[in-house]
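FW: tagging you since you asked about this chain on Friday. Here's the raw sequence from the shared folder, copied in full. Didn't touch anything.
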Amino acid sequence: ISGYNWSERRKKAEKFFKAEDQFKARGFLLDNKIGYIYLVGQQKFNYGVLDLGLRLIYEKNEVRIYQVLWF
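HL: got it, structure written out here
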């Protein structure tokens, strides 16, 4: 209805979470100007948050929000 290509965005997100190289994963965040990542339940990263340049800014129950650091 909106014309937004959500399936392409979903594919990119899946590629990020399955990335076999931490530098490509970090590059994805920077290239796409992603500022925050919202995880729920059992969702997790393949690499440590420090390796990806992330900082946990919120955690409650099964919700975690990370800020992407631009250093």
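FW: The mean pLDDT is 90.
HL: agreed, and The longest strand covers residues 54-60.
FW: great, closing this out.
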